[in-house]
Design brief:
The chain is built from six helices and no strands. By secondary structure, it is mainly alpha-helical. It has one domain. It is globular. The two termini are about 20 Å apart.
Amino acid sequence: MTENAGLASSDVLREHAQALWEVTRCLGDPRNVDLGTIGGVCAYEGRASDYPAVMPALDATFTLAGRR
């Protein structure tokens, strides 16, 4: 639920997951940076982002939840 702009400005992310931090800084569309989230980009296979490629490299896991 963290917006991309928050990730791009995170010193903690830069220190502990630099590859992910660098991907957040390469998003071109300002609307995606301001309003988009990392989960949203991954869920919708964001073709303008490298998030889906970086996540397996970082051994990331996702928990999907719905109303039920």
